Structures are given as C-alpha cells and as structure tokens.
Amino acid sequence: MTFQSDTSFVPIPPPGEDELPYDDGEPMESQRHRKQMYLLIEVLELLWNDREDVYVGGNMAIYFSELQAKKNDFRGPDVFVVLDTVRRERKSWVVWQEDGRTPDVVIELLSESTEKVDRTDKMRIYAKLLHVPEYYLFDPFTGVLEAHALDLATMSYVPVAPGVNGDVMSPRLHLGLGVRRGTYNGLEADWLRWLDPEGRALPTGDELARAAAEQARTAAEQARTAEEQARAAEEQARAAEEQARTAEEQARAAEEQARAAQDEAKLLAARLAAYEQRFGKLPGGESP
C-alpha cells in the first residue's frame, strides 16, 4: 500500500520582495520632485558610504501585512531611512523579511495630487502601523518644510517647531534638515537639504567634485606660486653671489692699489734717503 503525505496543513510562506510588485505605479509629480528625491538619497549614500548598517530608499513600496500586500493599496514613501539593518540591494521593503524593521525616518514630497493622502492615510499608517519615529513633509515648489514626531502614548504625530531659520533636527539621524537655495542637476531652486551640526548643507556628488577640482586648482596655483618664489629666491641668491664676487674683486683691486701705493711710498722714501745721504737734506726738508 502506498501512502501519500498530506501537505494541506503545511503553511505557505508569505510572498517576499521577489514576488511582490516593487513599482507602486505612481510616477513622481514633477521633474523637481524627482530631483529632490534623488538629492536627498544621494547625499545620505555619500555620507554613509562606509556604513553597512543603514538603508536609504525612495519611491519604493513598503509591505507591512499580507492583506496590504494582496490588495497592493499602499504607495511607498518618497524617501525613507532604516537604521540598524543590512545594507544591500532591495526591490521593495518587506517588513516580515526584515525582522520587523520599519523606517526610522520618512519624507514625503507634497503635491496637489498627493497632499491629502500624505496628511491622512499615509500619516496614519506610518504612525499606527509602522511606528515611524520621524515624519517630514516638504513642498518642493513652496519650500515649506514640516516636521512631525511620533507620540508613543497616542501613536500619532505631533508637530515639531522649527528653529529660528526654519531648520529642523532629526534626532534619529543626528542631522539637520533645511531649505537652501542652489543648483542641482542643472536646476536652480530652493532644495530640501541634509545639514551638518553647523547648519551647512551636506554636499552632493557634483558639489564634492567641484570642491575637489577647486582644491586641485588652489593646490596647483600654490605650487606655481611656490615655484615662482623659489625661482625668485634662486635669482636673488645668484644676484647676491654676483654682488659678493664683485665686492670681492673690488676689495682685491683696492688691496692691490693700496699695496702699489705703499710700494711707491717706500720707493720714494728710499730715493729720498739715498739723496740725503749723498747730497744732504734739501732746504726746508723738501723732497728732491
């Protein structure tokens, strides 16, 4: 008799990032929205280039429940950061594949078509289901930045007052966020930038390249200046050496003239002495 094993009670594992859609089907609202997302992600990836315990994503779906995954009714954050994780390539963020890790920081870029969802449905999900500690809203066209912190007692967001200059601090990332005028990928605008503790915008790759080029130009100019100074010093040394030789020659000539005058004086004295010995002294003691 042949028995077949009954597999009807073997649990089927939930789908993972390879099975779930990772494109939420919602394009970024505008060119500026896209560039703003890239700017925020690029700067953090450059800053944390040597870290393997952090992940920075953007416009990527986050799956937090099987029901939500089946319905696929949730669009991903524009920018999010997860700490204490593994840095690797991902198609989407699947919470049950990440040991329950959820984002530490979420940034949504507001637009007319998404602002209502960002302020209601997404805000509720980030607070009550994902427990994201920090939630930021930024409108790339008005330049208005809003910061929200999770109130653990109510699992809802409370506004965080900005500083005098409008900047806010991210306690989780130990970085600031603020609006700075500048050019990114050929577009001049008021950009949301990550800030260092002194309030300076952390550089993009292009800004790092320009700074490195400027430093190289400065170093080359300093090298040219040093070379010119060395040549001038060498010429001055040669001039001083020439002057020393001239002075030495003049001293030798003066010494020779002095010796010649002394020899002439001795010769005259000897002639006078010989004359006086032979003829006697001249009247008045004059020389012949």
Q: How do the strands and helices of this protein lay out in sequence?
A:
Elements: H1 31-47, E1 54-57, E2 62-63, H2 66-71, E3 79-83, E4 93-94, E5 105-109, H3 115-119, H4 121-129, E6 134-138, E7 145-151, E8 156-160, E9 168-170, E10 175-184, E11 187-195, H5 205-279
Parallel strand pairs: 2-4, 5-6
Antiparallel strand pairs: 1-3, 3-5, 6-7, 7-8, 9-10, 10-11
CATH secondary-structure class of the largest domain:
Alpha Beta
User: What global shape is seen?
Assistant: rod-shaped
Number of domains: 2
**Major sheet:** 6 strands, mixed
Percentage of residues in helical conformation = 25-40%
Number of strand elements:
11
The percent range for strand residues is: 15-25%
Strand sequence of the main sheet, in spatial order? Answer: 1-3-5-6-7-8
Q: On the 0-100 scale, what is the average pLDDT?
A: 88
CATH architecture of the largest domain: Alpha-Beta Complex
- Total number of helices: 5
